[in-house]
Design brief:
Blueprint: E1 8-15, H1 18-28, E2 32-39, E3 42-51, E4 60-65, E5 78-86, H2 91-100, E6 106-110, E7 113-119, E8 125-130, E9 152-159, H3 163-173, E10 177-182, E11 185-189, E12 197-201, E13 214-222, H4 225-237, E14 246-247, E15 251-257, E16 263-271, H5 296-302
Parallel strand pairs: 1-4, 5-8, 9-12, 13-16
Antiparallel strand pairs: 1-13, 2-3, 3-4, 5-9, 6-7, 7-8, 10-11, 11-12, 14-15, 15-16
Length: 314
């Protein structure tokens, strides 16, 4: 059996103060907060999900915000850079917008594409790239309209403690296609139109340390529960230790740590983010899984209140 993932489902990172997190990703980058919930393994901590208007796979970045978290160190065993894709011709808009919010950026080029590189308030490394593929994001915030809005992930740059093993996994097990190599990076591509480009650094960077400003894990797409169970057996059959299926309410998840020490997840596309609140009101209310509903008042009293920028369509 050979399998192929469509690409990135979501990326999850650790950051600092939740309001600073919301102000940057919703206020500056113009993403929609599609779900405000808690870390199911640590319910005293928010789990915030940002994406396009519908919160589709390939657009979702999620955060565990810890106000007093120690800064992490980006290095081997992590996603080093998270890429966002915008429509062709939008780069000038984003240069001006980042300047408006006093966000420093640098310009670079690789594999024939131009990038804007910058970091969020807690040190997470980000970049923007123009590409034609991917449907427009219709979520309108503070002058960001579909002709410039972030469509979703462009991809990610992986830092591995064993790059050759990570490359083997990406190409021969995850089913990504190797499409190029330059300047110490190998580029892989999946079949999706967004979240489809993975650049793997071929040299080691030094060990990373988990903390604020680092990616906790990268999740890959499974079509549904049946596809995910196939992935579970398939990955285990190649010698990786895979977890049982975890119910994350908005998707089911399995996890394994690949040989380069990066934590991989495989997440189901369904059920998505509008099954427990309406599409129109996603992200407005604290949503809790059933096991924590009895503790709602206690959790709401503990969690730091956050204000969310309003869409221009509301």
């Amino acid at each position: 059996m050979n399998k192929t993932t469509d690409g990135i489902h979501h990326i999850t990172a650790i950051v600092g103060h939740p309001q600073e997190n919301v102000d940057f990703y919703a206020g500056v980058l113009g993403l929609r907060l599609v779900k405000k919930t808690v870390n199911f393994d640590d319910p005293g901590t928010y789990h915030l999900y940002f994406g396009n208007e519908g919160g589709k796979p390939g657009t979702i970045i999620t955060f565990f915000p810890w106000p007093d978290a120690y800064p992490g160190k980006i290095g081997d065993g992590q996603v080093g850079v998270t890429s966002y894709v915008v429509p062709p011709g939008a780069m000038g808009f984003w240069e001006q917008r980042l300047e408006k919010f006093h966000v420093s950026f640098a310009k670079s080029e690789r594999f024939g594409e131009n990038y804007l590189s910058f970091s969020d308030p807690h040190g997470l490394q980000l970049e923007i790239v123009e590409r034609e593929a991917g449907e427009p994001n219709t979520w309108k915030v503070d002058g960001i309209h579909p002709d410039a809005a972030i469509k979703g992930f462009g991809g990610a740059t992986l830092l591995s403690s064993r790059p050759e093993k990570t490359a083997e996994l990406l190409e021969n097990i995850m089913g990504l296609e190797k499409v190029g190599e330059e300047d110490g990076l190998i580029r892989f591509r999946s079949t999706a139109d967004i979240g489809n480009i993975i650049d793997l650094k071929t040299a080691r960077s030094g060990a990373g340390r988990m903390g604020a400003g680092t990616v906790h894990h990268i999740a890959w797409r499974a079509m549904d529960d049946a596809d995910q169970l196939e992935w579970q057996q398939y990955i285990a059959g190649h010698g990786y230790g895979v977890t049982p299926v975890q119910d994350r309410n908005y998707f089911n998840a399995i996890y394994f740590r690949e040989h380069g020490n990066i934590l991989f997840e495989i997440a189901t596309d369904p059920p998505g983010f509008s099954h427990d609140e309406s599409f129109e009101t996603m992200g407005e209310k604290l949503m809790l899984p059933q096991q924590y509903e009895v503790y709602r008042q206690r959790l709401e009293d503990h969690l730091i209140p956050i204000e969310i920028p309003k869409s221009e369509t509301t």
